[in-house]
Amino acid sequence: MMAKPNLHTVAAHAGVSIATVSKVVNGVRYGISEATLEKVLASVRELGYRPNRSGRGLRTLRRSIIGMAIVDPSPTFLADPFTTNLVAGLSNYLSEQGFGLLLHGIKPRQVEASFLVRESVVDGLCLLLSGSAQFRLQNTRLFSALSHPMVVFQDRAADGIPDTCFVNQDDTGGARELAERALTRKPRTALIVIPDIFWPAIELRLEAFWQTLKAAGVATKIVRCDESDPVAIARAIGDSIERSGMPDVILGANDKIAIVALHLLKERGVQVPEEVAVTGFNAFASNAYAGLDLTTARSPAYEMGELGGKLLLERLESGAFESRERTLPVQLIPGATA
Amino acid sequence: MMAKPNLHTVAAHAGVSIATVSKVVNGVRYGISEATLEKVLASVRELGYRPNRSGRGLRTLRRSIIGMAIVDPSPTFLADPFTTNLVAGLSNYLSEQGFGLLLHGIKPRQVEASFLVRESVVDGLCLLLSGSAQFRLQNTRLFSALSHPMVVFQDRAADGIPDTCFVNQDDTGGARELAERALTRKPRTALIVIPDIFWPAIELRLEAFWQTLKAAGVATKIVRCDESDPVAIARAIGDSIERSGMPDVILGANDKIAIVALHLLKERGVQVPEEVAVTGFNAFASNAYAGLDLTTARSPAYEMGELGGKLLLERLESGAFESRERTLPVQLIPGATA
DNA sequence: CTGAAAGCGCTTACAG
DNA sequence: CTGAAAGCGCTTACAG
């Protein structure tokens, strides 16, 4: 097997200098004669030359790589459809622009040891954090100290984090719309079911649910559960019903919770939405397979990923983010359950 | 803002040579005095020095980056739980070893234009391809021409693809077990429902279903459908029932299909598994939320990702793959539907 | 135990 | 229109 061709190999083969080959390969077309262009292109093809990004990166101090750090305790950090769609949108946008996406799931305790933190590998950083507000802020600061331009997804814009844009979905607006839809059924009592782990999006949804229902004079209870376990979700809802009676409406903080609620109600022979209305949040395509027509809100996760990539590359180009924060609308999906 | 510190900055600060700093940073501990070590470490900390991977990569001709190319027509190429789990396993393994994962979804027509193909960015390549056998082989050859060590997931080992290991799950074994389980219900007729897109795994499952049922003398029909659309799946199954009557067992090529079948049967008031047994394939956690107790098989996707990463790094170390092909077992998940 | 020096592959400002 | 040369940040074989 021959050694990998480099600029020198190609230059020798084409009978020109490496500077000329470099220009041709980089699409610099002025100051290159037609004949030279042809010659070089032919050599590139014949030798199967591929520019080495380390060389270019060293010279230009640009690597054309964006890091995506997902801090999550679960090994299957990609399992959540929100994350999946976000990463897909980001990855596709970056690919189109010739940038690579370095995907890095990090356990909460291992952030400092991560090579993304310890070494200089990327031109910019995207962050998706879980955990308490304090823990997230602490990690945001840690990454911020690396002085890369950053896009932080689904978190509140914080002070003292320079060169960063916060990209969010409008959880508040979406939750308000869902609560308002539920209100058309004239409920007197409501149950809000949220996960017991901290998540800024969940806090916003809870707040919007709560305020909207309160303003309408609905007696509202809140119950927390381990959303990673359907049995735990069902138990939490069941316990609440036992204690406080059957609510007129159940607002799930996400679709997983709503789906479990739906099954629990069906088992008990409760009519949805006539007796109890149910709503979810963050609709993704998979619901359709379960034959559910859940009233929910569609997350713009994919578009958020695309936007984050766009903002980061524009920032790399221009030297500064245009805005500190961007929020994408959440779309109400009217279904048959509320 | 100060410029990024490099080896020279640190060396000057610590009053040593860059060679010494390099050794310290890389954990070379022999031939370094305790005093020097301390001094350098302090300077590294104080200046916030992070080694630049482009520099190291250029020098060592190693980049510590593995590429994962997923050739898929859909923009949400990550949506499938198999893919998600595979990528998570791969990513986690590589991270632990200090390697980065460059994730790259590629549309079938754009493979040749991809920067993963046109430029030299990675030390090794993982491939997950969709499309016909011919198309997959063509792309495998294309990537193979890049002369990176490769791990190809979910595809038949092909000739003329050097320096490559094929990592598969045992679709044949899993499908046989599922079919055998269905046979305990003594069916006379069976319906196999598969997607209309080409996928090596689907072909293997179909073949194993077919052979197992045939050997038992079961009259078996096959129907294809657009698995991306639950309505299309339901229509395909409904049409088949119309034409050929209700089968005693429905074998879905995957869980999505089985779940739609389950809902269709429930709507028609058919008892599962008493009247019709149903099986799926590639169980992932999300089924539990739908309150389904589907008889299916669990995919070792996460473990396949880990194994792929492990094989690739071992290959980088040793210079050659130990084996040409690896197959991971699929686990039968006995449920209530068959 | 320590450092000077070569060189990995590339881009770019400059001279011709 | 073309090329010689400097230098990006790093590692390593070698000399001292």
From TrEMBL, chains A, B:
Residues covered by the HTH lacI-type domain: 5-60
Molecular function per GO: DNA binding
Keywords: DNA-binding, Transcription, Transcription regulation
PROSITE patterns: HTH_LACI_2
InterPro entries, per database record: HTH_LacI, LacI/GalR-like_sensor, Lambda_DNA-bd_dom_sf, Peripla_BP_I
Pfam families: LacI, Peripla_BP_3
Superkingdom per UniProt: Bacteria
Keyword Protein biosynthesis: no
Protein name as catalogued: LacI family DNA-binding transcriptional regulator
